[in-house]
Amino acid sequence: MNEQRQLIVNADDFGQSGGINRGVIEAHEKGIVTSASLMVRWPAAEEAARYARAHPHFSVGLHLDLCEWSYSDSVWSPLYEVVRIDDANGIKEEVAKQIDSFVHLVGRTPTHFDSHQHVHRSEPVRSIMIETARRFGVSLRDFSDEVKYCGRFYGQAANGYPYPEGISAQALIECLRSLPTGITELGCHPGWPDDLNSMYTNERRRELEVLCDPAIRATINQEGIQLSSFHSLAVAAIGV
Question: Which domains does the chain possess?
């Protein structure tokens, strides 16, 4: 049994905008982010992929992008929908298309899979992505025996209302101190969001500040937590 606590800090939405790209890169180079998930459909995806190509040890997975929903006036409404999330055949085609785009952009296959607004947690996306992850031999968020997922570092409640205490430095420190043994993926969304139409904007700037806070790195060191990535897991698995 692995008694070591390993932490993958994964930034979602890489490639969605230039501001998010800058935030993810800053959180990687100056903070604790070790991996990112790329949205291939957006104009800024090429910029994000260029960084990934120049930094092959930076772990980059596919952030499957099928839709985005926004909460307003007590109602959830779609901002966009790429394919109906109950259309299994359409989803299979879109998954294949986005993986092909990823390989074309990044020049390698994804190190892991997850999805925008966690749509892969429900059927039929779930079964399709479980099979896809098995075929590629990589982790799928929430469905990996090896990697546990932690989504506590988030600045909104389930209904979309602000929850700033969820992305404070103290909240992240408490999360780090309570990490179980084994491998945990901590999700995050750093960014400079001025060029983004999303229900999650100012929270991204605050996440970036906290992820780069020296107190966070100090806590990781004090707790004996090993920062890792999906890339390093794959390297360890083949004994390189």
Answer: 5-237 (3.20.20.370)
Taking alpha carbons only, the member of 141, 54, 65 closest to residue 105 is 54
39, 61 Cβ separation under 8 angstroms: no
| CA–CA separation, 62 and 38 (whole Å) | 5
Distance CA 88, CA 145 (A): 25
Record the pTM.
Answer: 0.93
> What tens digit of pLDDT does each residue of 43-64 get?
999 999 999 999 999 999 999 9
Within 10 A of 28 (CB to CB), how many other CB atoms are there?
Answer: 24
Residue 139, amino acid: S
Rg (the chain; Cα; Å) = 17
Please list the active-site residues: 12
Rounded Cα gap, residues 26 and 89, in angstroms: 38
Residues whose CB falls within 8 Å of the CB of residue 21, separated by 6 or more in sequence, listed in order: 14, 15, 44, 47, 48, 51, 191
